[in-house]
Amino acid sequence: MLAFAIHGGAGAIRRERLSAELEARYCAGLSAALDRGFGLLEGGASSLDAVSAAVRVLEDDSLFNAGRGAALTREGRAELDASIMDGREQRAGAVASVRHIKNPIDLARRVMEKSRHVLITGDGAEEFALQEGMTLVANDYFRTAERKEQLRRQLEGESVSELMPAQGTVGAVALDARGDLAAATSTGGMTLKRQGRVGDSAIIGAGTYAKNGVCAVSATGHGEYFIRAVAAYHVCAALEYRCLSLTQAVHEVLHEKIRTLGGEGGIIAVDARGQIVMDFSSQTMFRAARDSNGKREVAVF
Question: Among 2, 65, 9, 50, which Cα is nearest to 278's?
């Protein structure tokens, strides 16, 4: 059984604020990432390769809040977070507050595979990237006109959710032909965040988690609440120790635990049998899924 799902963030965009043209562009971006990841699975690639490739596509698409097109800090800079987890051995890697890494998910995977650490931040992460032969880019590469305008308007106290999600994330989860699970998440964080702020996307167990035989999870939304809820791990633990279904576990985290704390967002997850769940408590979640039984879904609302 092959199963694959991605998300491109959850937020407060109302249907009447999203033009048909812009919705089509979002769906095209999701489709490209979905088909890239699932195509690798069909070709026999690992779940790790599939989630890495799909997230990289979304990081390169300026519509999404990760990589190019990331939300900006109050100083107008992009600071990026990402993480990845291998369900087979429960290895994990993450980076946070990086400013010059074109594809943070690639560096997170290098941390997992080439270092003794799980999470490296800021200048230390970028020094590690240089040691690994990765090319750094100017911070201006990430700063699009739309994100600059969004920051300007939010600094003036306006609501910016009608422009594009002011917070959000991209992510992917996969089950491959060997039964291995993996999850990956990447983000620019929230517009107007303080320098050095790190959300759930870089925190294993909060925004990303995977364990073979159980499930793989990637979250999106207001990261502080997902950190406090240990959201991604909570989903897996509910399956493993309380025998909840994947649907029940995701619903409990989003609609009970996080909502009680005052937050909202979305979760994509896949279990060891290939069941896919994409649930959200916000108005929208950009999402897509495919499996080897013929399922194919791309949706926003």
Answer: 9
224-236 pLDDT tens trace: 999 999 999 999 9
- pLDDT tens figures, 271-297: 999 999 999 999 899 999 999 999 999
d(CA 269, CA 251): 11
Where do we find the tokens 């959000």? 168
Running DSSP on this structure, what letter comes out for residue 263? -
Whether residue 163 is predicted with pLDDT greater than 50 in this model: the reply is no
Q: What is the DSSP letter of 258?
A: I
Other Cβ atoms closer than 10 A to 157: 6
Residue 172 parent element (H or E) = strand 170-175
* Alpha helical stretches, state H, the chain: 20-42, 47-60, 104-114, 122-131, 145-155, 223-229, 231-242, 246-251, 259-261
Mean pLDDT over all residues of the chain?
Answer: 95
Does the annotation count 185 as an active-site position?
no
Its pTM stands at 0.96
Which conformational region is residue 262 in: left (phi greater than 0), alpha (psi within -120 to 50 degrees), or beta?
left
Q: Domains plus CATH for the chain?
A: 3-299 (3.60.20.30)
Select which of 169, 185, 208, 284 is catalytic: 169
More confident residue, 48 or 15: 48
